[in-house]
Amino acid sequence: MTAVGQVSDAVARDEVGDIDIQLIELSKRFDDVVAVDALSLEIERGSFFALLGPSGCGKTTTLRMIGGFEEPTSGRIELAGTDVSGLPPYKRDVNTVFQSYALFPHLTIFENVAFGLRRRKVRGDELRRRVVESLELVGLGGLERRKPRQLSGGQQQRIALARALVNRPRVLLLDEPLGALDLKLRKEMQLELKRIQHEVGITFVHVTHDQEEAMTMADRIVIMNHGQIEQLGTPSLLYEQPRTAFVASFLGVSNLLAGTVTGADRVRLADGTEVRVQRDALGGRTGSVQIGVRPEKLRLDGSESNTLEGTVAESAYIGVSTQYIVNTAAGAVTAYVQNDRPGAQAIPDGSRLTLSWNPDCTFVVDAQEAS
Amino acid sequence: MAWLLLFFVVPMVYLAKMSLEQGFFPLFTFSWAWSNFSDAVSAYRPQFVRSIEYAGIATAVALAISYPLAYWIAFRGGRWKNLFLLLVIAPFFVTYLIRTLAWETILSDNGVVVGLLRDVHILGADGRLLATSAAVIAGITYNFLPFMVLPLYVSLEQVDPRLIEAASDLYANRVVSFARVTLPLSLPGVFAGVLLTFIPAAGDFINAQLLGTPRQYMIGNVIQSQFLSLRNYPTAAALSFVLMGSILVLVMIFARSLGTDRLTGAGA
Ligand SMILES: Nc1ncnc2c1ncn2[C@@H]1O[C@H](COP(=O)(O)OP(=O)(O)O)[C@@H](O)[C@H]1O
Ligand SMILES: [Mg+2]
Question: Ligand 2 being an ion, which residues bring their Cβ within 5 A of it?
Fold first, then answer.
């Protein structure tokens, strides 16, 4: 029994759950700015991992420390279980897609992509084959003889990707790789990147400040703020059960209402209405808290068990849904109603109605600090 | 275009006409005297060869000194970059002639340098620095150094540090990333610096005159004396043309060897 258990255990560990990157208490200080503050996290092999956060929260610095371009002030970085702190970038089994692409202007596309392979003494037919393969992977076969400046921004972006992937690194680091592209191209590349990641199976660490981009692409997201982790999890977990007000408002729209804990799964709102929340979400908090509900979770027909009376202050028809701002005694609330029936008629401003929502859709975050 | 016509084409045509004249000062007559060229070249072949030699060596030495200097200022200079550049061109605030005279003093037989070198027996008891080829070449190198440093600095300064990071990301150590990225991208600066140094150096006469003897005289000295002392204008003009022609040929060979494609493509 035990022997079998151990074997299957070992197999399981080999297939999933292998850790490619481990950051341990990683910190980086620039003079008086703490860019990264005692960051610890693990990134699984083969995952598409996103570092998400507002500009200046330390994403790039974290990525640059993994790549070896920035020396940590303290803490450690392990790649596949070995400590790489102190190793220069060219000795790390990691490649980077730079935000500026950083293609070599004096080299042809072929030589740009071949650059890493040549350093690793790949020559002749194998070199040719791998460069061509890699260009085909990003859909740019046949451009080998061009120079970077003869390509469009989107093409340069793909070349940068090919140049990194051709080396088959353990981990690919991407720093806002789509930041310079226009919206349409960006959406296209998001799906393309995800396809490529599935195809090659390499761990991707993707830095972005665009929550939609992170949600679209990543298996797991870590949300950073002020150099620290706010929350780590799958896109749906972060969206459905944000643990902090920052996460709740950074990922999409949320209604946060102040209240006081009155029981193991009960919170009384400012107007005296008592609502039920998930026991886990409350996490043993007492005293003042905020409860949160996503706008699309609200019903206007009073069909769910948590309820709140209010008056329609504003409505906007957006096509796929209609957006209402409802004033309640506990605060203003935003609700999205799907226009999934023919001839949907907006509820007129000033109408009184009862908002309702499921207790399981109710998350709890700390009370707003008095400012 | 008008400027070009006034300051380049007109003097050139005048000089060309003069190179084909015959006679004695002040009476020259135009006579398609092509022999001026062959006579001038055969008479002053040693000075020609010496000019190209000295200018070539001085340019090579200047490049060897300037590249590391410009590299250091561009990549390690930090916020003192401008100060370092100012120091490089500081000697230019003094007239060319005075600068070279100062060198004459420094290298003179009873100067500090010679004394020191004699003391440590690098020079013999009657060894000299002044009046040697080395002195002339050193003078030329010194005088034209900023012409080498500045274009090199400009091209190195333009090398995007992110490209060097990218090279290092792609497994290139510092030496390889210099050879494969920094150096090729700085070639336009090397080209400009070599031209700006070699061309005036090949025509220089001040250094040979002040730091050398007639045995170190270059073609510039010959042209100068033909023009100003002997007033043999046709020979002087013919020599000038031959000098210009040979420089042009050398520049073209040099451009070829660096690769014109790189020179025009790398800076973009
Ligand atoms: N080289 C540097 N010198 C000084 N401060 C820096 C440097 N790089 C980043 N910082 C600071 O560190 C913080 C985090 O920067 P960064 O990692 O680039 O954030 P992000 O990529 O999330 O926008 C910012 O406050 C930024 O000003
Ligand atoms: Mg950044």
Answer: A 60
Q: Does B184 touch chain A (CB under 8 A)?
A: yes
d(CA A306, CA A318): 26
Per-residue model confidence as pLDDT tens digits over B87-111: 998 888 888 888 889 888 888 888 8
Which two tokens mark A115? 């650059």
* Statement: A253-369 belongs to CATH 2.130.10.10: no
CA-nearest residue for atom 1, ligand 1, is A30
Is A33 near ligand 1, meaning CB less than 6 Å away? yes
The 3-class SS string of A274-311 reads: EEECCHHHHCCCCCEEEEEECHHHCECECCCCEEEEEE
Chain A (51-80) residues lying within 8 Å, Cβ to Cβ, of chain B: 67-69
Q: Ligand 1 in contact with A59 (CB < 6 A)? A: yes
A329 CB less than 6 Å from ligand 1? no
pLDDT at B29: 84
| A96/B169 touch (CB, cutoff 8 Å), yes or no | yes
Tokens matching residue B3 = 């400027």
CATH code 2.40.50.140 region(s) in chain A: 253-369
Homologous superfamily assigned to A14-240: P-loop containing nucleotide triphosphate hydrolases (3.40.50.300)
Q: Do the Cβ atoms of A144 and A132 come closer than 8 Å?
A: yes
* Residue-level pLDDT at A258: 93
Q: Relative to the CA of A224, which ligand 1 atom is closest? A: 22
d(CA A290, CA A255): 10
Rounded to two decimals, the pTM is 0.84
A89, A106, A115: residue with CB nearest B185: A106
Q: Of B11, B6, B4, which is closest to residue B241 (Cα–Cα)?
A: B11
Q: Domain ranges in chain B?
A: 43-267
How far apart CA A229 and CA A353 sit, in angstroms, is: 39
Cβ of A316 below 6 Å from ligand 1:
no
Summarize the confidence of residues B231-248 as an average pLDDT.
Answer: 91
The set of residues, in sequence order, having a beta carbon less than 8 Å from that of B57 and lying 6+ positions away, is B137
Whether A56 lines ligand 1, by a CB cut-off of 6 Å, is yes
Ligand 1 atom index nearest CA of A55 = 23
- Does the interface ipTM go beyond 0.85? no
Phi, psi of A45 (to 5 degrees): -60, 135
pLDDT (0 to 100) of residue A13: 42
Chain A contacts in chain B segment 152-171 (CB below 8 A): 160, 162-163, 165-171
Q: Is the pLDDT reported for residue A11 higher than 60? A: no
Q: How far apart are CA B240 and CA A144, in angstroms?
A: 48
Domain with CATH 3.40.50.300 in chain A: 14-240
- In this structure, which topology does domain B43-267 adopt according to CATH? MetI-like fold (1.10.3720)
**A244-253: b or e for each residue (b if 16 or more CB lie within 10 Å)?**
ebbbbebbee
Sheet of strand A82-83: strand arrangement: A33-44, A19-30, A74-79, A82-83
Q: State CA A103 to chain mean position distance.
A: 26
* Chain B CB within 8 Å of residue A130 CB: no
